[in-house]
UniProtKB/TrEMBL annotation:
The record marks 17 as: Transition state stabilizer. It comes from Keratinibaculum paraultunense. Keywords: Amino-acid biosynthesis, Aromatic amino acid biosynthesis, Lyase. The lineage of its organism: Bacteria, Bacillati, Bacillota, Tissierellia, Tissierellales. Catalyzes a trans-dehydration via an enolate intermediate. This is 3-dehydroquinate dehydratase. Gene3D superfamilies: Dehydroquinase, class II. Substrate binds at residues 74, 80, 87, 101-102, 111. CDD domains: DHQase_II. It catalyses: 3-dehydroquinate = 3-dehydroshikimate + H2O. The gene is aroQ. One of its GO terms (molecular function) is 3-dehydroquinate dehydratase activity. The active site is at 22 (proton acceptor), 100 (proton donor). GO terms for biological process: amino acid biosynthetic process; aromatic amino acid family biosynthetic process; chorismate biosynthetic process; quinate catabolic process. Homododecamer.
């Protein structure tokens, strides 16, 4: 079962970003947790991080040809305005889970709107790095 995990902009700076919001864990640590859980579920992960919108879109397009069965995506700030990422997700006919480390609904007003969520199967936010694990578990149960 091939699963694509996409980390959006600034996720590569986890551990250095505002620790009161994002915690102290690094992206490498999150990826390690995901690989370990995926192994338990018999999943194969393709994990990708980019700060560039077009690279994320290209990766989503590639998933059409790479037998990807589900996607976990943290679009970062693109959550709130990237219609291009939204459109790339919308054409996929697989389960997609949008994730956020922080509770975007308890933050600034501009973060409370996701243009991505309407084309996703579901959204998980506010559980810290475990939002990713919950998303992977949800995909496991759905696929």
């Amino acid at each position: 079962m091939n699963i694509l995990v996409i980390h959006g902009p600034n996720m590569n700076l986890l551990g250095k970003r505002d620790k009161t919001i994002y915690g102290t864990y690094t992206l490498e640590y999150i990826d390690e947790l995901l690989y370990n859980r995926a192994k338990e579920y018999g999943m194969k992960l393709d994990i990708f991080q980019s700060n560039i919108e077009g690279e994320i879109i290209n990766k989503l397009h590639q998933s059409l040809e790479n037998n990807i069965k589900g996607i976990v995506i943290n679009p970062g700030a693109y959550t709130h305005y990237s219609l291009a990422i939204r459109d790339a997700l919308e054409i996929l006919n697989i389960p997609i889970v949008e994730v956020h480390i922080s509770n975007i609904y308890a933050r600034e007003d501009f973060r409370k709107k996701s243009v991505i969520a309407p084309v996703c199967t579901g959204q998980i936010s506010g559980f810290g790095i475990y939002s990713y694990i919950l998303a992977l578990e949800a995909l496991y149960m759905m696929i």
